[in-house]
Structure formats: structure tokens, C-alpha cells
Amino acid sequence: MSFSQLNDIILKLTDETTVKVLNVLLKHKEIIDEEMVNIINREIEQSLEGFSEDPEQIPRIALKEVRKSLYKLNERSLARYRRVRDKETGYFVYYWSPILERIIDLIINRRKRSLKKLHQRLDYEQRNLLYVCEEGHTPVTFSDAFELGFICTTCGKELSQKDNTITIQFLERKIKELDKELKTGLEELDELVEQMESAIQKK
Predict the structure, then answer these.
(1) Residue 40, SS3?
(2) Which CATH architecture has domain 4-98?
(3) Where are the alpha helices (DSSP H) in the chain?
(4) pLDDT at site 1
(5) Which helix (H) or strand (E) holds 81?
(6) Model confidence, pTM
(7) Nearest-5° Cα angle at 179, 166 to 9
(8) pLDDT tens digits for range 137-191
(9) pLDDT at position 55, please?
(10) What is the C-alpha separation between 59 and 47, in angstroms, rounded?
């Protein structure tokens, strides 16, 4: 399962490696970092299969990069670990898992924030007559255009009323898309929660 709704959010917060790490966590529920490196590198090799003649030239993820990403996720309360001492070696082994409640909150809050901004922009476009120059510089309201003498302060050209029908249609479409994305993302996570609870009950 690919958790597409998280990818763009996590990428804004961190980097591409952390996106890969979180997706592996979500797929495998609980996993050690060494195994995570193997899984990510296998996925990279499969995605580049047929594109690279020399396997040695395929870029691979190092263990320290994965650990750095895990620490980032842990700092943001998106992943947790449990420490177990290996009876044979005496060293500690760290088992990593996602914090689903925090991830769900992150998706909801980020999407709601984006939706709020879009709704505010849509309301602004619908309530105001906007004026713009032929160069397309920042539109202004009628009252601002009036005070400026209907002259653009950037280029000095005349301001005329803008037909914002296309902008309004774009915003309405984007709002519908985000609503759908939010619902899809939550459905993916609900499915994952059910899978994890089922796995726990079987133990």
C-alpha cells in the first residue's frame, strides 16, 4: 500500500529519504533499522530495473541516513521505538513503529489548513470586484483601484476589471480535490489501523 497522502506532507517537513522510511514503517508495523535499509534499497533497485546496466551505479540508502530519518520522525512524534537487548550479543536492538494517531492528526490538520486558505481565497474572489493591469500584476479591489486612479503601481498601466470566473472555478475544483484527498488518506489509515489491531489480536 502506498500512503500517497502523507508523501507531500512529510516531504515539506523533511526530505525524500524520510518519506521512504515512513512508508516502510506504515507497511511493516514494526521493524528494525537494518531491515528497513534492505527494503528501501530493494525498492530502489526494482524501480530502476532496466534503466541501469551497472547495478553498482544504482544509488542506495545508507544505514546512517535511515537512522537520521527515524530520529526526525521520532522528534515529530510520528514514530516510536522499543529497545530490546539481544541475548546473544548483549547489544540493544531498536524496533521502530509508526504513531498512527499523530499521523492521522497531521493529515487532518494540514489538509484542513489548506482547505481553510482556499475557502478564504474563494470568498475573497467571490465578494470583490478585482482590477488588474494587462501585465497581470497583483490584482487589487475596486476601492484600492479607485484610490490609485486605476493605475498599476508596478508598471503604470491602466487597471481594468478582472474576470475571475476561471479563478473561482479553479478554487472550487481544488477544494473538492482536497476534500477527496483527505477522505482517501483517512480511509488508507483506517485500513492500516484495522490490519494492525487484527495482527495484535492474533499474537
Answers:
(1) helix
(2) Orthogonal Bundle (1.10)
(3) 4-13, 16-28, 33-47, 63-75, 100-127, 142-147, 165-202
(4) 38
(5) strand 79-85
(6) 0.62
(7) 100
(8) 989 999 999 999 999 999 999 999 988 888 899 999 999 988 887 777 667 666 6
(9) 58
(10) 11
Long-range contacts of 191-195 (CB under 8 A, 24+ apart): 191/1, 192/1, 192/3, 192/26, 192/100, 193/100, 195/29
pLDDT of residue 86: 85
Strand order in the sheet with 31-32: 31-32, 92-98, 79-85
- CATH 1.10.10.10 positions along the chain are 4-98
Helix axes 63-75, 16-28, angle to 10 degrees: 80
Of 124, 131, 130, 167, nearest to 152 by C-alpha is 131
Cell numbers placing 48: 530502476
130-132 and 31-32 strand pairing: unpaired
In a 13 Å sphere around the CA of 199, the CA atoms on its Cβ side amount to: 10
- Cell of residue 162, nine digits: 478582472
Task: State residue 19's pLDDT score.
Answer: 85
Task: Please report, for residues 96, 157, 166, 187, the alpha-carbon distance to residue 134 in angstroms, rounded to integers and kept in the order given.
Answer: 56, 7, 16, 45
Residue 97 confidence (pLDDT): 92
Q: Which residue ranges in the chain fall short of pLDDT 70?
A: 1-9, 11-13, 48-58, 185-186, 188-203
Cell numbers for 84:
530490546
